[in-house]
Amino acid sequence: MIVFMIATMVFFIASGAGFELNTVGYLQAFGYGLLTVLALIALACIPVLIYCYFVKMIPDIDYSVRAAFAVTLVGLITDVIF
After folding, report:
1. Global confidence as pTM
2. Per-residue pLDDT for the chain (82 aa), expressed as one digit of tens each?
3. Dist. CA 57–CA 41, nearest whole Å
4. Which among 3, 4, 64, 67 counts the fewest CB atoms within 10 Å?
């Protein structure tokens, strides 16, 4: 799931550049894609921690990755539709 999210973010960053990228440009797109995915997973941790607190369940990073993956899929679907 994380690889798919990184690939999706890198694709949209590279396609949004609007011109031919060289090697450094692709490395920058990969770096920004990785940073975006890490930030998305970190933001997804907040509702997961709140939910796990009320349900009295031990929080796990898998729940945050799944929530971030769902957000990525929703973003991908809305980008394709609109």
Report:
1. 0.82
2. 999 999 999 998 888 877 777 889 889 999 999 999 999 999 999 988 898 899 998 888 888 899 999 999 998 999 888 8
3. 19
4. 3
Please tell me the distance from the alpha carbon of residue 82 to that of residue 75, in angstroms, as a whole number. 10
Rounded Cα distance, 11 and 3, in Å: 12
